[in-house]
Automatic annotation (TrEMBL), chain A:
PROSITE patterns reported in the protein's UniProt record: 4FE4S_FER_1, 4FE4S_FER_2
Domain of life per record: Bacteria
Key words of the record: ATP-binding, Iron, Iron-sulfur, Metal-binding, Nucleotide-binding
InterPro entries per record: 4Fe4S_Fe-S-bd, 4Fe4S_Fe_S_CS, CobQ/CobB/MinD/ParA_Nub-bd_dom, P-loop_NTPase
UniProt name for this protein: ATP-binding protein
Xref: Pfam families: CbiA, Fer4
Domain 4Fe-4S ferredoxin-type: 57-86, 87-115
GO MF: ATP binding; iron-sulfur cluster binding; metal ion binding
From TrEMBL, chain B:
Transmembrane keyword on record: no
Any GO molecular function: ATP binding
Protein name: ATP-binding protein
Domain 4Fe-4S ferredoxin-type positions: 60-87, 88-117
Native organism: Irregularibacter muris
Length: 286, 300
């Protein structure tokens, strides 16, 4: 069962929820797809880590064969090539690795070479298998890394898998939720929170995913995010309080369910609710 | 014009809350929201009129004319982004297509064309000499860096000469942040006293250093973890980064924001603290260039 945890923006508690759910589930897999700022590993501090570099293919020119026809330069939609001073230059940072220039060079002067864009780490923390993708600073697209994280390391389907998605609703998030059985949307109790929640709400609807909301940092008084859920008839899975104890554990990168029974109970019951929801969805759809 | 860019390695640190307070305090005539994935600044800055809207076109998307297609499968085999699928007929998944044009070039019967696609919307509020530029990226459109550049261009082109522009930057470290950094005179980092906050902050400082941009730091919600706050202060000392001050966690801030107000509109602890941060920041920003004019009411 794959459960994706998302929020319209960072800082809402997406990592708090996914890390603690994975820890509460005991045997599970946690995949950190927030590859620009992966934080899950700071909490899990995984052991026995193995690392694998992630590469993309970019063109390499053989200047002996190149005759300067500039067909490749004209083709490249991303302006990643230039023919200057009788030499073809590749601007690596903007190349999207579409492969077109190589395909269409009449002199076969272009071949591919691998370029490292980051790495994927795998390790364990108690019974949780922890995958982390780390994108190098300045890389334009992390999609190849998300693909690697989600599709090549597919754990057995009977095991619970939690996907900590990138923030926002852009293409990387879409890739992260594509195969999820259920989505948890995390929201803050402010009008910012509602605005951000609305975006991921539109996204999960577009992808036809079953989902529910976790209201985080709840304080006394009006909660615009809660009102939004009631209006739209969205299932509220849990209300996590703003409490300074949880805040301190979290800001010290401690996993709350492993530190305190109170939070163990809180996240275990959230986990149960989510599992029931998924079961319910599968029976009502079959 | 001096551009002050407000950044945070991570979302949720209160970057927009602080940016809106700065806009209020400085009476800035020009400001922009570069978080095109999830813009929030418009929710707490007053706009007296409807914005001027402009469609933003990103890269085009491929489209297959199934009448012409002879189902040779070449396009599908050569698309590196797995955007072409076949279910009786060949079709392009617009969310995955990057508009690279390989399929179009390889199709033997010219059944594929690249069509311009709206990737977002630019909004410009301009009234009474005040300019606010913002945008919203459409769901699933990847090129947010380019839209950030457009937001800043739009702000500049609509602004009469003014000495200060405040820009709410994009979260993260990726291409939108790099786009918001270019042209900025100074970065104010809003840090959060958590292990992950510190981690993210270090990454973004490295990015700003690559651009050679002057960088200063303030800590928001500093009292939620005093120990980590100390760590950040020490980090600043060691790195020689200018420290602008600390803002406490404040339930009053949540109330202000939910009423569409900034934290300096009401009397609250975070509002008082942010004024100190503001004064220091503006001073540092203009340090080498004392170009303040007396009629611009800056509280220095
Ligand atoms: S298409 Fe081939 S031969 Fe022509 S400029 Fe490019 S690399 Fe050189
Ligand atoms: S692989 Fe594609 S994006 Fe990269 S240089 Fe060649 S044509 Fe341009
Ligand atoms: S334009 Fe490029 S990405 Fe889009 S469908 Fe064609 S080959 Fe694939
Ligand atoms: S390359 Fe052209 S003809 Fe061949 S399957 Fe694709 S669209 Fe059809």
């Amino acid at each position: 069962m794959k459960i994706a945890v998302l929020s319209g923006k960072g800082g809402t508690g997406k990592t708090l929820v996914s890390v603690n759910l994975a820890a509460a589930a005991k045997t599970s897999t946690y995949i950190d797809c927030d590859i620009e700022e992966p934080n899950g590993h700071l909490f899990f501090k995984p052991e026995n880590t193995q690392e694998e570099e992630i590469t993309i293919n970019i063109p390499k020119v053989d200047n002996e064969l190149c005759n300067g026809c500039r067909k490749c330069v004209d083709f490249c939609k991303f302006n990643a090539l230039a023919y200057i001073k009788e030499k073809l230059i590749v601007f690596e940072e903007v190349c999207h690795s579409c492969g077109g220039c190589i395909l269409f060079c009449p002199e076969e002067a272009l071949t591919e070479r691998e370029k490292v864009i980051g790495k994927v780490q795998k390790g364990t923390s108690d019974q949780v298998t922890v995958y982390t993708g780390i994108l190098n600073t300045g890389e334009a697209s992390g999609i190849p890394m998300i693909k690697k994280l989600l599709h090549e390391n597919t754990p057995p389907s009977n095991k619970l898998t939690f996907i900590d998605c990138p923030p926002g609703s852009a293409c990387m998030v879409m890739d992260s939720i594509k195969d999820a059985d259920y989505c948890i949307l995390v929201a803050e109790p402010t009008i910012f929170g509602v605005h951000n929640l609305n975006m991921v709400y539109e996204l999960v609807k577009l992808f036809n995913k079953s989902f529910g909301v976790v209201l985080n940092k709840c304080v006394e008084g009006d909660n615009p995010a809660e009102r939004f859920c009631v209006e739209k008839n969205i299932k509220i899975l849990s209300r996590l309080p703003f409490d300074s104890e949880l805040g301190i554990l979290n800001s010290n990168a401690k996993i709350a369910v492993r530190e305190n029974e109170k939070y163990q109970a809180l996240f275990s019951s959230l986990l149960e609710i989510v599992q029931e929801e998924v079961q319910h969805e599968t029976t009502s759809h079959s | 014009m001096k551009q002050l860019l407000i950044l945070s390695g991570k979302g949720g640190t209160g970057k927009t809350t602080i940016a809106s307070a700065f806009i209020k305090l400085s009476k800035a005539k020009a400001y922009a929201d570069c978080d095109v994935d999830a813009p929030n600044l418009h929710l707490i800055t007053e706009q007296s009129s409807a914005p001027k809207r402009t469609d933003y076109y990103g890269l085009p998307k491929a489209e297959i004319n199934t009448e012409l297609c002879i189902q040779c499968d070449r396009c599908r085999q050569n698309c590196r982004f797995d955007s072409i699928s076949v279910d009786k007929k060949y079709k392009v998944n617009p969310f995955a297509c990057e508009g690279c044009g390989v399929c179009q070039a390889i199709c033997p019967v010219e059944a594929i064309s690249l069509k311009p696609a709206v990737a977002g919307e630019l909004m410009l509020h301009a009234k009474e000499g005040k300019v606010f530029s913002t945008a919203q990226l459409k769901m699933g459109s990847g090129t947010s860096g380019m839209l950030v550049t457009e937001v800043k261009k739009q702000m500049k082109s609509a602004t009469a000469p003014t000495h200060l522009a405040i820009i709410d930057g994009s979260p993260g470290i990726g291409c939108p942040v790099i786009a918001s950094l270019s042209g900025a005179d100074m970065v104010l980092m809003v840090a959060e006293p958590s292990i992950s906050g510190i981690h993210d902050m270090e990454r973004i400082i490295n990015t700003a250093a690559k651009f050679g941009t002057k960088t200063a730091i303030c800590i928001n919600k500093f009292d939620t973890n005093i120990e980590n706050t100390k760590k950040i202060e020490e980090f600043c000392k060691k790195q020689g980064l200018a420290f602008m001050g600390k803002i406490p966690f404040d339930a009053g801030a949540i109330k202000a924001i939910n009423n569409g107000q900034t934290i300096v509109d009401i009397n609250c602890a975070s509002g008082i603290a942010v004024k100190v941060v503001f004064n220091k920041t503006i001073k540092l920003l203009f340090e080498e260039y004392p170009v303040l004019h007396s009629n611009d009411a800056l509280h220095i």
